[in-house]
User: What shape does this take?
Amino acid sequence: MNRRNFCRNVAAANMAGAAAGSPKAGETASAITWSRRVPVRYQADVAVIGGGIAGVNTACAAARAGARVVLVERFGIPGGNLTTGGVASFCGETRGQGEIFDEIVGDLEKFQAIMPYLPYEKREARVFDHHILALVLQELLLRHRVKLLLHTRFVDVLRKGNRLTEAVLCGKSGPEALRAGIFVDCSGDADLTRRAGFAVRKGRPEDGMQLPMSVMFFVRHVTPAEFQAQLPPGWFHPVRREEDLPMTSVWPNGPGGNALKVKIPRFDSTDTESLTAAEIQARRRIWEVLDYYQREKKQPWRYDGCSPQIGLREGARIVGEYTLTVADLRAGRKFEDAVARGVFYLDGHKPDDDKRTYILPKDQLKVPPYQIPLGCLIARGADNLFMAGRCFSAEQLALSSARVSTSCSMMGQAVGIAAALCAEKKCRPADLDPREVRRRVEQKGGVL
Ligand SMILES: Cc1cc2nc3c(=O)[nH]c(=O)nc-3n(C[C@H](O)[C@H](O)[C@H](O)COP(=O)(O)OP(=O)(O)OC[C@H]3O[C@@H](n4cnc5c(N)ncnc54)[C@H](O)[C@@H]3O)c2cc1C
Assistant: This one.
């Protein structure tokens, strides 16, 4: 069986494995109406759903501007892809992103946990210690007096007309509500917006396939005496030939170790069963790839762990007042309502292939510095909903550049400023004067 078929079959097997809880073929799924009184335990001017790098920037910027902010994060630490996804590197330009990002980098520097600065033109990524980032982000949020709810998942939302009124959350205390004036979707997968019923797009236009996921794992170097291959015989489908490897990137991870990233395509992070299948396949592939490096390449590596969740490049993209296009990026387009910028190349990994393949040919990936307008961060049709980070309003290929953590941070800072302004003026995002947001972004160190 060739590897592509094998991957498909693993996915299919995982889906089938879930059949114990699913309706059998031919059966119609029934539905229930779920209704329950839920206490409104939290009130905020600005509610931020998702504590990745975009959510942290949003929450801190809004709090700095005087808003009462609640941040809801489903895991036990903030940072999203950068921490729980094990990404551990800022791509793009790490200066001029704004004061919140500067503070994050400054704190990592105090812990000696980040590479020295070089401009983007000289080096495209700045590696840091992702365990330390989790601590830095947590302390940053607390310094800004953001009310942080960890292990708390956003579940549903109530609407009056086009206004969101309360989010239903579920943490260990059970279902509780968060009432807020302004909501910001930083979930990466547009969870809040999808539950609210506003428009989203997913994947590439022809079949909805999203940019592929990848999983991160880590090895430490051992002496030849300590070394032995670890995958027991009979487990999974170890890789024997280099050409059978899925796209695997290897780089140093501190002294005496390496980080490896393995591409896991063809799954959907907004579908429960598909995401489950992706996680299962990722954990198997890690061992198949590791076995290749241990047995075939004779690398004296010992497995040192993997990220607790698979890395997600694209979930659902919210339809905003404006949608950023590849043509905008290629033209380095300037916008009157610009509030963030991007510099990274079009990093569009092919969604349906596990090899190192890109949607565009290599000589078409570069883009000049471009701007991101406020309109891309305002959900179309909603009266009090912004978004920041990888679920913002963009074409898939434009997202492949703007999804990097530096641009997501900048979007977050801009949206935090805008959300606090809306809360103060009691106005809709669309009624804000974008020039005022832009002025404040620039005052706070954002270079557009
Ligand atoms: C494999 C991989 C490698 C990458 N490499 C790089 C790189 O080298 N450099 C770089 O700059 N960028 C890289 N990126 C891109 C970058 O990491 C992400 O696009 C960026 O971090 C996204 O930030 P975000 O805050 O928008 O989303 P996320 O980081 O996805 O954060 C979303 C947060 O929302 C939370 N959440 C989601 N749903 C809910 C819910 N229902 N309730 C409560 N909380 C919820 C999540 O737990 C998460 O913390 C990479 C991405 C991947 C997948």
Notes: The two ends are 51 Å apart (CA to CA). The CA atoms of residues 76 and 120 lie 32 Å apart. Residues 213-306 form one domain.
